[in-house]
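[[Local backbone shapes]]
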Amino acid sequence: MEQTKKAIGYIRRSKDDGKGVSLFMQTQEIKRYAEQNNFDLTEIVADPDQSGKDLNRDGIQKVISIMKDIDAVICYRQDRLTRSATDAFFLSSLFGRNGIAFHTVTDHRVDVASADGEFLYGMKVLLDQRERKLIGERTACALKAKKSRMERYGEVPYGFRLLADGKLERHPDEERVILHIKEWRKSGESLRSIINRLDKAGIKSKKGQNWHPMTISRLLSAE
């Protein structure tokens, strides 16, 4: 009888995945795959609302930290693990050094040990990364065009207000807040210091909530 091997599942879904496979469905598919392939699934680690652009995620760091105690990592799809080609090669190398098999529900065992397997894996990762960047470029161009025409795109951005005809116009009070934020940042203040200033002044975000470093960062990087 084939010996049961220990495996850990990993699931991820970013805020921008839209109609992508939910964390629940990824979990169910990984459990089914583990059972069908005689894996003892010890845990499923999740990174909800996390981008796959880098490895700065609690879940994936946990997978890396307990790698020596398992025989395999199972994901629903390769891009759930990472969307970065550099990180994908780093992880596959790490799996190899620790004798960890990498499985996906969609592709089964991913061969990264042989020359041909590594080549095919690399090509798939690079093609996935290219597609993601192309989508990002097309989206950025579309949003830039809408912004130039003062049309609404997604949520009304801070610094603008929505008119009855669906067009946007600049919001003077919010524009002054943005100007102050940029001046504070230029003078060397941290994002947290800027947030403290805004909180003390009673200035809320567009949704009426307290500010978050990522929100400030997006305002600073917006054209």
User: Anything to note?
Assistant: Residues 140 and 200 are 34 Å apart (CA to CA).
